[in-house]
C-alpha cells in the first residue's frame, strides 16, 4: 500500500484535500502484527498505570498535597499522549491503514507537541514545588503553593502550550503542498510536515526553533538551576542523615526528568548525527520513545515514593474486602 500511494503527487493542492502516508517499520511489513504486541502492551500499561495513579491521588486524602497534584497532571498528560498516538499506530500495524487526512494529521501533531510542551512545564513546576519550596523554604511551603495557585499554574501551563502551538497550525495551513506525501514516522510531527511543502518554510522552522528553545531549553535550564539551589541548601544541613533524607525526596522527580529528556535528546542526536546508522533504528526508537515515559513514570513514583506505596498498601486490602462482600452477601 505504501508503494502504491507514495508516488502520488500534488500540484499546489488545497490543504483540505491533502492526504498523507504514515509509515510503520519499513522493511518489516510482514512483522507488523508481531511488532504491534509490544506497542499495544505499552499503551495498555501506560493507560492503566497513569489512570490508577490519578485515581489514587484523587481518592487518598493523604496525597492531597501540591507534589501529588502536579504528579496527577503529569499522569493525565501521559494518558493523553499515549491515546493521541497509539490507536493510529496500531491501525497501521494491524490493518495497514497508513493514510491520514491533513486535518487529522495536523490535529494529532498539535496534541503531541501540546502535551510535550505541557509535560516539560509540569516537570519544571514539580521541581519548584516539593523539590525547591519544600526543601529551600519548608516553613512557607503551604502558604506559597496553595490550591488556587496550583490550579492557576495548571491553567498557565495549558495556555502556554496553546499559544505556542497555534501559530504553527496557521503557518502550515498557508503552505502550498505539491511534493511527495510520505511522512517518516507512524505519527505526525511538525518537523516532518514542513519537509513536504514546496513553499518557503523558513517561518515554520524559525518558529519551531523558538518553541523548542523557549520550552524545552528554558525549562531544562530552570530545572538545573532549581536543583543547584536545592543541593546548596541540602549541603547546609549538618547531619548526613538529614542530607540523605532531603535528597531522597528528589529521587522520583530526577528519574522522571531523565526519563523525559534523555530519550528526547538521544533521538534528536540520532536524527542529527546518525545518518550512517540504519533507518530502522531511528524508526524503532521514535515509536518506542512515545510510550517509554508514560510506562516508566507510574512505576518509578510507585516504587520510589513512600506515601504512594503506603496508599497502595492501604487501598488494595480495602478493595479486596469490598469484592469479597459482593461475592459473599
TrEMBL record:
Keyword Membrane: yes
Record-linked SUPFAM superfamilies: Family A G protein-coupled receptor-like
Cellular component terms per the entry's GO annotation: plasma membrane
PANTHER family: OLFACTORY RECEPTOR (PTHR26450:SF104), OLFACTORY RECEPTOR 56B1-RELATED (PTHR26450)
InterPro entries: GPCR_Rhodpsn, GPCR_Rhodpsn_7TM, Olfact_rcpt, OR51/52/56-like
Keyword presence, Signal: no
Entry function: Putative odorant or sperm cell receptor.
Domain of life of the organism encoding this protein: Eukaryota
Membrane topology term: Multi-pass membrane protein
Alphabetical list of Pfam families matching this protein: 7tm_4
PROSITE patterns registered for this protein in UniProt: G_PROTEIN_RECEP_F1_2
UniProt-recorded Gene Ontology molecular function terms: G protein-coupled receptor activity; olfactory receptor activity
SMART domains: 7TM_GPCR_Srsx
Locations listed in the record: Membrane
Transmembrane segments: 35-58, 70-95, 110-129, 150-172, 251-274, 280-301
Primary location group: membrane
Name of the protein described by the UniProt record: G-protein coupled receptors family 1 profile domain-containing protein
GO biological process, any: cellular response to lipid
Keywords: G-protein coupled receptor, Membrane, Olfaction, Receptor, Sensory transduction, Transducer, Transmembrane, Transmembrane helix
Location of the G-protein coupled receptors family 1 profile domain: 49-301
